[in-house]
Write a structure and sequence with these properties.
Alpha-D-Glucose-1,6-Bisphosphate, Chain A, domain 4, globular, 4 helices, alpha+beta, single chain
């Protein structure tokens, strides 16, 4: 059984907690391998992630570009901390975003046969956090994670 929680624990942060019916190593792979991210980190059904380039090391950068029929949205990240199978910390800056970079911390925790991910996004200001929470933000997270739910059993078979 999976669960999804979306909260705003502080005036400048968003927290997303999600459980997955898969071991930590598979959920980690899905979050760190570009070809796997392209398959699930797309948001709603009419969106895609055609660009996903990752230099996965501390100090390394990543580039993501999402598309749908109406728009294209790009984001650049820089990895600040990586603890394999436990935690990833990076800054992210969306193209044209005037509010400055946010810091994202994703924690991976085993819970029996499941993995729980906790994503904390820290913005520079409350206005920046509120602007990021535009309609579709939460729904995009949920849709992506539902797609990941479908991908994880395939990884289990292939590993």
């Amino acid at each position: 059984m999976t669960s999804f929680e979306f909260t705003t624990p502080t005036p400048t942060s968003i927290r997303v907690v999600r459980s997955f019916d898969a071991p930590v190593d598979l959920v980690w792979r899905a979050h760190t391998e570009p070809e796997l991210l392209k398959q699930w980190m797309t948001g709603p059904p009419d969106h895609s992630l055609p660009v996903c380039e990752i230099d996965f090391r501390v100090g390394g950068k990543a580039r993501y570009v999402w598309k749908n029929p109406q728009f294209e949205m790009g984001m650049t990240a820089e990895f600040k901390e990586i603890v394999e199978h436990e935690r990833i910390v990076y800054t992210e800056l969306y193209d044209g975003w005037p509010e400055g970079a946010s810091t994202v911390t994703t924690v991976f925790a085993a819970a029996g046969d499941q993995t729980i991910t906790t994503v904390d996004i820290e913005y520079l200001t409350q206005d920046a956090r509120d602007a990021a929470m535009q309609p579709g933000f939460k729904e995009g997270y949920e849709a992506s994670y539902e797609t990941l739910d479908k991908l994880l059993p395939q990884l289990r078979v292939g590993s």
